Amino acid sequence: MTASTSSHSRPLPDYGEPIVLRQYIHWRRLIGERVQIRQHGQIIRIGTVDEAMADSTALWIAGDAVQPRTMYEAALGIEVWTDIPELSDRVDYRMASPKSSPDWFRKESQ
């Protein structure tokens, strides 16, 4: 199963509930998600993100019955819109050492 054919875990909105789309900047996080591709304010394609460059310079929309797999580039004015919220770039980490680990972890690792 590829990202473009995976099942989505997000629940669908209730009937009549508005869907709020947002411009998404970090394209790599959208692999497997359904998006709108816009250029100069016009919707030019709706599809599933198949792959994306780590630096968000380009992405590929999976092919379907009507259109082939297509690459879109940010340099050409492409914007990606979706209903999932943009995640922060904050990186969370914690140094691990025997002194900072919980008792149950120290006992199992000895």
C-alpha Rg (nearest Å) = 19 Å
- CATH class value: Mainly Beta
Tell me the number of helical segments per DSSP (H or I, 4 or more residues long). 1
Low-confidence stretches: 1-8, 91-97
Query: What overall form do the CA principal axes indicate?
Result: globular
Look at the structure and give the mean pLDDT.
Answer: 75
Approximate strand percentage: 25-35%
DSSP summary, beta strand count: 6
Give the SSE order as H and E letters: EEEEEEH
Query: How can the largest sheet be summarized?
Result: 6 strands, antiparallel
Number of domains: 1
* Euclidean distance between termini CA atoms: 39 Å
Could you say what the CATH topology is called? Answer: SH3 type barrels
**Helix and strand composition category:** mainly beta
**Strand arrangement, major sheet:** 1-6-2-3-4-5
Structure notes:
- The protein is mainly β and 110 residues long.
- It has a single domain (22-109), classed as Roll (SH3 type barrels), CATH 2.30.30.
- Helices cover 6% and strands 30% of the residues.
- It contains 1 helix and 6 strands, in the order E-E-E-E-E-E-H.
- A 6-stranded antiparallel sheet has the order 1-6-2-3-4-5, with no helix packed on it.
- 11% of the residues are buried.
- Residues 1-8 and 91-97 have low confidence and may be disordered.
